[in-house]
Amino acid sequence: MINLKKEFHTIEKIFNYLKIDTIEEIGITTFLNKDTVYVKTESDSYFINIVFLKDQSPEYSKIQISKVKCLEFFNKNGVHCFLPMTFNDKIFIDYRNKEYEIYKFLNTKHLNLEDLTSKQFKKIATTQAIIHNLNVNVNIPSSYEEIKLPTNRKIAKLEKYSSEGYKLLYEYLYTIEEIFDHYNKLLKYIKNYLVVGYDNYNLNNIEWIDDYMYLIDYNNCKLVNPAVSLAESAYSFSFKDNNIDYDNYTKYLEIYLKRYGQLTSDYKEALYVSQNKRLKRLVNAINESLKTKDDYSVEIVETLKEILLFNANVERMYETYINIVKK
């Protein structure tokens, strides 16, 4: 939680030091999907993201700089990205165990799936293929790691705090265990081919100025498997009303594959691994409920339903991919 009264004097000092205009207005807004300080000066407006370094590892800043350089490379190759400002070759302003990232305000707009024109939809799928074909050498982490479902003993305790979540999890426990096991077994194959990419490639991380799209969060720069990343995004841009719109799904695959070319990894394996964020979300909800003793039934039930829906559609999604490749 940002203490605006406390941060105002620090930000004022930083703006004076950097010789930015005098602050006229300051407040809290949402940017990069989190609370951020908004600052208006006489001539411009800014977003300031504050990172508390005591919560980070010693290697944190090095990795963050690599991620920013990754987006800079995307920018130079025609993929518009929203980047923090640079001052004397420094991206982050250090002050009292915090880092301040300053972004110049851009008058962008956020679009939902139903708001996208066919041109914008095509732009999204084409841009993802362009990113996966870029060759950039930076030290950034991978998107994939082993995910373990909590033990049956822990799950049994869930009934006390998240009873509705527990009921659905218990009903489909064997299927869920299989999904987790299958995911973890396939990781070694997926990790054989990784490229620098943009994780969480979805509408939460895309902003627009007319038909120009901007990727907004450098934290999503990670090593990805193109097939897995494609499987995640094709699903994301076709999931609506708790179902999969196969017209959108087919269209996304066609546009991407036309630009990218043949996938190196097996697409069916990629589909199973592309469940990773939902599996993490489920584990986190279970663990949080056990830790806080609060009811996380809504999060558990919603995530379980989506995991099961996706799993039930793997064969059809794979068949859709095969039909496109055969054309």
In words, what does this structure look like?
The protein is of the alpha+beta class and 327 residues long. It has two domains: 101 residues, Phosphorylase Kinase, domain 1; 214 residues, Aminoglycoside 3'-phosphotransferase, Chain: A, domain 2. The chain is 50% helix and 17% strand. The protein is built from twelve helices and eleven strands. The strands form four sheets. The chain has a five-stranded antiparallel β-sheet, with helices on one face. A hairpin with a 2-residue loop joins strand 10 and strand 11. Helix 3 packs across helix 8 and helix 4 packs antiparallel against helix 5. The longest helix has 18 residues. The chain starts with a helix and ends with a helix.
Strand order of the largest sheet: 1-2-3-5-4
CATH architecture of the largest domain: Alpha-Beta Complex
Radius of gyration over C-alpha positions, nearest whole angstrom: 22 Å
Determine and state the CATH class of the largest domain.
Alpha Beta
Structural class: alpha+beta
Largest sheet: 5 strands, antiparallel
CATH homologous superfamily designation of the largest domain: Aminoglycoside phosphotransferase (APH), C-terminal lobe
The CATH topology annotation of the largest domain reads as Aminoglycoside 3'-phosphotransferase, Chain: A, domain 2
| CA-CA gap between termini | 53 Å
Strand content: 15-25%
